[in-house]
Amino acid sequence: MAVNADFTSAGGFDTTGPVAVALAVLGLLIGAAAGLLTRRTLPAMVVTLVALLALKTVWSQMRMMFATTVTKTTGGGRFGEGDSPKIPANALEVDTSYVTGDGSLRGWGTCTNADDRSACLRREGVVGWSKEYLPFSHMDAMQWAATGALAGLILLTAGVLGYAARRALR
Length: 170
Prior knowledge:
The chain has 170 residues and is of the alpha+beta class. It has 2 domains: 10-67 and 139-168; 70-137, no CATH class. Helices cover 51% and strands 15% of the residues. It has helices at residues 10-14, 17-38, 41-62, 117-123, 139-168; strands at 70-73, 92-100, 105-107, 126-134. A hairpin with a 4-residue loop joins strand 2 (92-100) and strand 3 (105-107). It starts with 9 loop residues before the first helix and ends with a helix. The mean pLDDT is 89.
């Protein structure tokens, strides 16, 4: 199976596993609730479209909240380009930084304009690299955590649907 390098994108994350099912159920419930609340087909379709677009926008910003990243560091004063920690081939690189002797991080752009970059990095206290990444093996846990969050939205939407159904049957 080919692995999408950015498995946290909508194409890799939202269309596989339990997240796909949860998003489909949520969309169905939103549409049904909109139909019962508006009692008109076209306005219900517009309300559903707007709600699903809003959900998609918010969801795309929240997706990485379910990620647990891994950090690899090097040390010993080795901070050349070839000394950067290697990450698994199917992992998503989140951040690359320099690490100082006290453990704080400096952006990878530190000293890029210096005449003697190595000397500048030593003055900054840099002793190695830090790479933060998300292994592909974490995708299952991310998807189940995201499905749990979506389950909360499903329950909320089901409550609105129940209210709308009771109102429509009066």
